[in-house]
Amino acid sequence: MTTTNGGPAEVGPAPGAGQEQPQLTVVAQYIKDFSFENPNAPQSLNVRQEQPQIGIQINVGATPLSETDIEVVIKLDGKAETSSTLLFRFELEFAGVFRIRNVPQESLNPIVMIECPRLLFPFAREVIATTVRNGGFPPLLLDPVDFVSLYRQKMAQAQPTPAPAAGS
User: At 24, which helix (H) or strand (E)?
Assistant: First the structure.
């Protein structure tokens, strides 16, 4: 019998040996594309009594780069306007490269479309807040995004709708 550090050596494989733990690693994150427009400055910077209407659209996309690496992109399009004036508009594509290992195939899509954007969103939010502030407006602090609901909506839209029964 051999010993290790004074104790008996383990016989047989260690518990869980051969089963690698799932891993999600952020390899890189970056601004892929960004545009900010303040088309009516300096008039748009005047103090207004009317609250601006703010509209935001969020989309998530993914592109495999290798067997383990995936690029995930959050696209945020937004604008602020009053009844008569466009105050500002922005388009941001914020991306990250994620290395995903030892994840069952059935869990891969939810991880890519929910967890990866959840990790990227705070950084995209900061880019937008800072840019809007630097554009002369109060910072635009985006509310947290429920990427689970966004994923479920996308999956529901991808499902084919059943055709009506013949003869009805």
Answer: strand 23-37
Q: Residue type at 94?
A: F
How many Å apart are CA 65 and CA 71, to the nearest integer?
7
Percent above pLDDT 70 for the chain: 83
- Range name among 14-23, 75-84, 101-110 with the lowest pLDDT average: 14-23
Q: In angstroms, how far is CA 78 from the centroid of its own chain?
A: 15
- Tokens for 48? 């207004």
- DSSP 3-state helix, strand, coil percentages of the chain (rounded to 5)? 25, 35, 40
The first and second tokens of residue 41, run together, are 């400055």
SS3 166: coil
What pLDDT, in 10s, does the model give residues 7-19? 454 554 555 555 6
Model pTM? 0.79
Bridge partner list, 61: 73
Q: DSSP labels for 47-103? A: --SSPPEEEEEEEEEEEE-SSSEEEEEEEEEEEEE-SS-EEEEEEEEEEEEEEEES-
Instruction: List, in order of start, the domains of the chain with CATH numbers.
Output: 21-137 (3.10.420.10)
